[in-house]
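Exercise: predict the fold of this chain.
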Amino acid sequence: MRTTSILSKFAILLLFFISACSSAPSFRGKLLEPAMPAPAINLADQSGNLFHLSDSKGKVVLIFFGFTNCPDECPLTAAHLKQAVELVGDRAGEVQVVMVSTDPVRDTPQAMGAFLGKFNPSFVGIPGTTESLSQIWNDYGVVVLNGGETHSSFIYVIDQAGNLCLSFTSEMSPEDIASDLKTLLSEQ
């Protein structure tokens, strides 16, 4: 009986040790396993500068899809991302937010610049033609209908190595998004 008690205590101690040693981070967003290289984005941004997603290596990139005339979900997503980036604090410069247009007809570079400028001037907007944007929509599995007014509403997270590693829903709180950003930034 004493041997059973000692073995039970040893088993509990071993389980505690194993759980204490597994330091895999806990994310609030949906972890994409395995992480995969993020699909390329190579288009002009709202300022006319060529944006290459690959140039963002070393930063955590948040990509969302939307349109500037959206009355509710797109501005809410941009506001949540603005708050989340601010909550990161000193490392906010290591986070890049990118909005890819779902409305190539109305989302001119000027419209995207004005829309994103309301939230954070460092946010990048990707306008374009239907042909150039549809490739990005397809690569990220985004469904766009009704002239861009109906679209998938996930936020895609790309780690510092350029891998698509997490996704958030547009309803996630800025605090939860910031928590995951801090975890990713601390892994660097």
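Check your answer against the key: The longest strand covers residues 30-37.
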